[in-house]
Amino acid sequence: MSALPLVPPLFPAGKEPLPPGFTEDDRQVMLQNKRMQNYMQMGMESCIAKTVMAAGMGFGMGAFISLMSSSFAYEDPLIRQQQQAIGAISTTAKAKEIFAEMGRGMWRSGKGFAKVTVLFAGTECVIESYRARNDIGNAIAAGFIAGGVLARNTGPRGALWGGLGFSAFSAAIDLFLRRETPEED
Amino acid sequence: MSFLGRGPVAPSSAGPLSSERVEAAIQEVELVTDVFNRIVSSCHSKCINQRYLDGELSKGESVCIDRCVAKFFEANKRMGEKLQTMGAAAG
Fold first, then answer.
1. Which residue does chain B place closest to A129, by CA atoms?
2. Cα atoms found within 13 Å of the Cα of residue B8, Cβ hemisphere only
3. Tens of pLDDT along A110-141?
4. How far is CA A46 from CA A56, A83, A121, A127, A178, in A?
5. Does A8 touch chain B (CB under 8 A)?
6. pTM of the predicted model, to two decimals?
7. d(CA A120, CA A111)
């Protein structure tokens, strides 16, 4: 198990040569460490971890976009007129209200984006594990399913078109990511 | 490993370094190496994308390699058993 990669197993299982500086007593500890490391790596590469990371990234992206767009979503002359009529609230209270509104918008937008990315990434990972191939068909199928699920409230035709649109979009992104880059040297 | 009270041991007796056992060990290492090389070359040609997009193994490739090695071992074992029964039946 602790053999070098690409080298055939020349030594019996428990008797590989120790790296310099380790004694025979450390072998069990080294084996345990290697096992834990393998489990960590398997966990990081599993579909669940990928879905969780996609959720985090989707949420971050949604929150960022909402943050940027909240700066030009707030000027409303009617509200200003109303406030001048009632009597001005203090600047601190106004600022707090603005930030609270921004936070709610970020949360809502982040949740929406996270749903999209979780659906897509989870479905793509499952399809890829099933097919055992890494080509563009995974992105197309996952995009179709994700688009269909996201558009499920608009009836069967709406879900069909939503699926086709999202799958075309994700296929375009995947083609871009797999494009032939010019050789660097 | 003390040879007190015995004469010089004949070289091809069943000591730990007899030539038969060394021969058998060499055969076994060669066999294992051969099986390993076959696994590597066949599973590489079947499973790994010919266009190297990324240094890491993707999810599909690693799943494919797991399945390929498992199938190879299974097939190897069954062929070995079959050959053994055929050899026993013939001789």
1. B60
2. 3
3. 999 999 999 999 999 999 999 999 999 999 99
4. 16, 54, 12, 13, 22
5. yes
6. 0.79
7. 14
Sign of CA dihedral B12, B13, B18, B19: positive
Is residue A27 a contact partner of residue A11, using CB atoms and an 8 Å limit?
no
CA distance A119 to A144: 11
Q: Estimate the crossing angle of helix A47-70 against helix A26-45, to 10 degrees.
A: 50
Structure-block tokens of residue B51: 């266009």
| H helical segments located in B1-91 | 19-47, 59-90
- Among chain A residues, the shortest Cα distance to B68 is held by A132
Provide the shortest C-alpha distance from residue A136 to chain B (in Å).
Answer: 12
Environment class of A68 (CB within 10 Å of its CB; exposed 0-12, middle 13-18, buried 19+): exposed
Q: Does B53 touch chain A (CB under 8 A)?
A: yes
Q: Per residue in B29-79, pLDDT tens?
A: 898 899 999 999 999 999 998 888 888 889 999 999 999 999 999 999 999
